[in-house]
Design goal:
Conserved hypothetical protein from pyrococcus furiosus pfu- 392566-001, ParB domain; two-stranded parallel sheet; alpha/beta; 16% strand; 39% helix; 8 helices
Length: 205
């Protein structure tokens, strides 16, 4: 039987964290690295002491991240050795196949590649440094920061927005001029064609 636990905190090596998705937005990671670098040593310690990475324990007791992949990657790139995690569920009694099925059905996994295509569970990287860039995930994050849509608790909401933009903004436009693509995406986000997406804020009045 699946064991749900009361959240408990423990320090874990960043290098040992296991992703539950294939992609992140490298632009998002760069912004988080800037935020970390702007903190004094004291404030950085306080930040790490209050920002916990939520994980689910899998086979062999490994820590599988179910959120904050961008922060975990930023910490890795900044040379942070360990971080506190919050253990939300203990599924360590399951074999690998059953574990992945449970994660998938609990919306604790996003096995989609940088083209928005679903991939086998085996394609999910084994460590945060192997996560792949999806520029449209960065675009979705930028549009949210600009007020294009509201933060929403729907699992992987930003990836739904990323897929929406992927179908409407060419990769060449996004690659050549991120700011221009962001302005176009902001316009799209406020149109009624996006009203099915989590956090949609209505048309621009």
């Amino acid at each position: 039987m699946m064991s749900e636990t009361r959240p408990m905190l423990k320090p874990v090596l960043v290098a040992d964290l296991r992703p539950t998705q294939i992609t992140i937005g490298f632009h998002e990671v760069a912004l988080k690295r800037q935020e970390l670098r702007a903190l004094s040593a004291r404030k950085a310690g306080a930040f790490l002491g209050h920002h916990f990475i939520p994980v689910v324990l899998g086979p062999k007791g490994q820590n599988h991240i179910i959120d904050h992949h961008h922060l975990a990657r930023a910490l890795h790139e900044e040379g942070v050795r360990d971080v506190f995690v919050s253990v939300l569920a203990d599924l360590s009694m399951l074999d690998k196949e059953a574990f992945h099925v449970v994660l998938d059905n609990r919306a604790w996994m996003h096995p989609f590649d940088a083209r928005g295509k679903r991939r086998p569970y085996s394609d999910i990287p084994k460590s945060v440094d192997k996560l792949v860039d999806d520029p449209y995930r960065s675009l979705a994050g930028e549009v949210r920061r600009r007020g294009g849509y509201a933060k929403d608790l729907t699992p992987f909401a930003e990836f739904l927005w990323a897929d929406f933009f992927r179908r409407r903004i060419g990769a060449d436009v996004l690659g050549d001029d991120f700011d221009k693509a962001s302005r176009r995406a902001l316009q799209l986000a406020r149109q009624t064609i996006a009203n099915y997406l989590p956090g949609w804020s209505g048309p621009d009045m």
